[in-house]
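User: Hi! I have a protein structure encoded as tokens and I'd like to know what sequence might fold into it. I'm fairly new to this, so please keep things simple.
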């Protein structure tokens, strides 16, 4: 695997956060007028119960560093290899960018709508994501690598997404975020000797925020059934595959991170896919057949394509650019073949909301 520039300075951390690639977290903008027209009257009881939970704010005291935090960093993280250190720092930079992306999006929506239901929801979710981003950024500051989040907001490129794409992508990112965090937390709960950094201790209650955020978008989608039926199922299918493929390729670029926790990247990813498939049955009448041989072979090919693209990029020049283009086409063709794998279908439950039971 090709070496990437090490994250040893705030400038490199900021550069990594600003990247706009297929695998890097993005900042989004959307149609605020359309967001303002969201109608949740058909699921009013569940919606009001959810907002009451946000108002209760059961994690208001969670994102506080304990005196032992710094000590544990000094005692345990100082022992990790330089290679694992870099993978972990890359994980932190990617995570803070992703969490802050949600904060920016939700805050912009709540500032630009008058709909009281949407305004309240977005204010609560922006609050949560701000805490998450701040907590991760403080962990980066321990290494002198804190990111200027205000500067990131001003300088990172934004991608326009229609509201329905925001609903699909954000629902899945919140739910898969829950599945990722809870899988890591349970693993380190069983094997505390492999907890090489104290931030993992916060993952259980933290990921319940992610779960609740996903529940919010599940309610919005179920309140607008046209978004999860007919031709829109083609978009559901696309976003399911895109989110899974992005996670798989990204995780296989930093295998030491999972190995240090006693996990293997492929097994970990499929555990996360299985949990996300089960959760997403609350709102999507289809799910990906993650056990299909062509699905698994396609994921492995996407990893190989990514490695080849990086090698071509490192080579540079005309030949390197031509190779990058050729491998990008190969990746798109692989994605298209995976998209055509038959999906599994099921009925939607009568009650939308579910408990974080994993």
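Assistant: Happy to help. Inverse folding works backwards from shape to sequence: for each of the 358 positions I chose a residue that suits the local structure. Here it is:
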């Amino acid at each position: 695997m090709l070496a990437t520039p090490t994250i040893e300075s705030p400038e490199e951390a900021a550069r990594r956060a600003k990247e706009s690639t297929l695998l890097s977290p993005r900042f989004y903008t959307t149609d605020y007028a359309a967001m303002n027209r969201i109608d949740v009257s058909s699921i009013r009881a569940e919606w009001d119960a959810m907002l009451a939970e946000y108002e209760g704010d059961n994690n208001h005291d969670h994102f506080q560093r304990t005196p032992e935090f710094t000590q544990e960093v000094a005692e345990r993280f100082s022992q990790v290899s330089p290679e694992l250190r870099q993978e972990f720092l890359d994980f932190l930079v990617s995570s803070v960018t992703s969490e802050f992306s949600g904060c920016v999006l939700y805050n912009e929506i709540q500032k630009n709508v008058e709909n009281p239901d949407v305004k309240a929801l977005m204010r609560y979710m922006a609050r949560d994501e701000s805490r998450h981003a701040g907590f991760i950024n403080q962990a980066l500051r321990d290494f002198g690598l804190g990111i200027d989040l205000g500067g990131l907001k001003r300088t990172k490129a934004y991608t326009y997404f229609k509201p329905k794409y925001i609903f699909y992508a954000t629902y899945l990112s919140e739910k898969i975020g829950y599945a990722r965090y809870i899988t890591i937390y349970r693993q380190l709960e069983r094997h505390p000797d492999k907890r090489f950094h104290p931030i993992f201790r916060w993952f259980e209650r933290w990921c319940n925020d992610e779960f609740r955020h996903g529940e919010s978008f599940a309610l919005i989608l179920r309140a607008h059934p046209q978004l999860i039926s007919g031709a829109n199922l083609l978009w559901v299918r696309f976003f399911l595959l895109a989110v899974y493929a992005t996670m798989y390729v990204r995780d296989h670029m930093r295998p030491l991170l999972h190995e240090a926790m006693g996990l293997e990247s492929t097994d970990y990813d499929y555990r996360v896919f299985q949990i996300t498939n089960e959760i997403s049955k609350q709102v999507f009448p289809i799910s990906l057949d993650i056990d299909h041989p062509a699905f698994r072979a396609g994921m492995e090919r996407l990893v190989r394509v990514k490695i080849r693209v990086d090698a071509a990029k490192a080579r540079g020049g005309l030949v390197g650019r031509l190779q990058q283009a050729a491998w990008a086409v190969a990746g798109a063709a692989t994605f298209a073949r995976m998209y055509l794998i038959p999906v599994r279908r099921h009925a939607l439950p009568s009650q939308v909301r579910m408990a974080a039971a994993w």
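A useful reference point when you look it over: The chain has a mean pLDDT of 94. Feel free to ask if any position seems puzzling.
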